[in-house]
Amino acid sequence: MLFKVYNQIKTLKYLFKTMKGILRTMLCQFTFRNYRSYRDETVLSMQATSMREFERSLIECPDGQSFLPVAAVYGPNAGGKSNLLEALDYIRSAVARPIRLLSASTDAPEGNRSSIPRCSAFEFDDVSAAKPTEFELYYRAGEHEYRYALSVHADEIVSEGLWRRKLGASRTAMLFEREGTGVELGPTLRKLVTAARFNPSLPYLSFLCINFDAPVIKEAASWFLDGVFLNYNSSYLEQMLEQLLDEDDSLEITRFLRAVDVRIDGFRVEKAPEWRGQRVFVKHEVYGKGYELRLSEESAGTQKLMGLASFLLAALERGGTVVVDELDAKLHPKLLRYVILLFKDPEVNKSGAQLIFSSQDVSTMRNDVFRRDEIWFAARGEGEASQLWSLADIHEANGNLVSKNAAFDKQYLSGRYGADPYLTRIEEWD
Q1: Among 18, 30, 289, 375, which lies 20 to 30 A Cα-Cα from 225?
Q2: pLDDT tens-digit readout, 46-93
Q3: Which residue range forms the structural domain that includes residue 55?
Q4: Residue 274 burial by CB count (10 A; 0-12/13-18/19+): exposed, middle or buried?
């Protein structure tokens, strides 16, 4: 397990470095079906609706389209929150991982692996198990909007395709389409791609990015390389994040932490042989005297914030999508609110960064924090299949949409939005 963590740290270091030089990217829409607890087609849209609230916080594009800076997913335990985020990470890492490993970890065993990660289909349906899992992404990079589709059955790629259109244009051009091992190239790539043979166990987009140094290919792959997925269900996450901290970022991270009233005076990194990682010492000044504590001796919340700050600040400065499972874990509700509002402040989020996260903390589910289309719910429905829906699509008993001035948290806990957290059933035990 530790060796696996070591390799994860190496690839995350490469990812963190590459984040600092990538063009602006943005997620528009994610669609998938037949993945883990999700049987039916499921859509997470980051395109803003016409609702007139928090308009200043929206990410505005040159073609007049507006996108959400934040999406928060709520719901009961085992409802599908984590599976939704992991589905998004699956397609991201399926493309990015081969590129990162060949660039950063060719000396590690993982660098020689040549197959796509195994994909788990819907768990409670024998018919679904025999069908492929389907993913589709709409994302923007530079001056183009891309559509990428990937179909996977277990560890075999069934089909794949990439299309793009220039922002403001109506025509969409096919870059490539793949069925099994057969690939058809569009006119743009036909001029650039000379090699016909590729590893059929890997996405063709990964193959292109690894083997051809062309602007169109780099742009098409940029969203996948730009994204970050952090899972706070992992007991090794704090250890991994400690290895990412760079002393050159001490001033910036310290400023961020002091803004949320975490009182530190910087940190230093003590280098060690690579296989042992590095040690981080946090500086404190008490009554004019300096002290140091190992990062591992700090509170769990401080450890999380220090590791998380690197990714949040990089995204806010340069753009990109940060996905965090259980963002609220070990964070005070006021700190969680502060992080959310950073992404919703156009003076801070000047590069159009996006934060997508799951949470159990409903104290932030308020109309002074979120637009209605930024709040999503995941829960199991018929046949134990997870379902996803937005607060923006919920209608009251009178047929009207939920008011933008409603007490979202109280109405959710009362069961009016579905995704029932089971509180009413527990109350019935008395």
Answers
A1: 375
A2: 999 999 999 999 999 999 999 999 999 999 999 999 999 999 999 999
A3: 22-235+316-430
A4: exposed
* Extended strands (E) in 180-275: 182-185, 228-231, 267-271
0.85 surpassed by pTM = yes
The DSSP 8-state label assigned to residue 35 in this structure reads B
Distance CA 189, CA 192 (A): 5
Q: What is the pLDDT of residues 159-204, one digit of tens each?
A: 999 999 999 999 999 999 999 999 999 999 999 998 778 999 999 9
Q: Is residue 198 part of a domain?
A: yes
Give strand pairing partners of 411.
none
Number of domains forming the structure of the chain: 1
Six token digits for residue 380: 């199991």
With CA atoms as reference, report the closest residue to 358 among 86, 26, 85: 85
**283 within domain boundaries:** no
Indicate which CATH number applies to the domain containing 202.
3.40.50.300
Rounded to whole angstroms, the Cα distance separating 344 from 227 reads 18
Cα(370)–Cα(57) distance, integer angstroms: 10
Helix (H) or strand (E) holding 316: helix 300-318
Contacts of 33 (CB under 8 A, 6+ apart): 39, 40, 41, 42, 133, 134
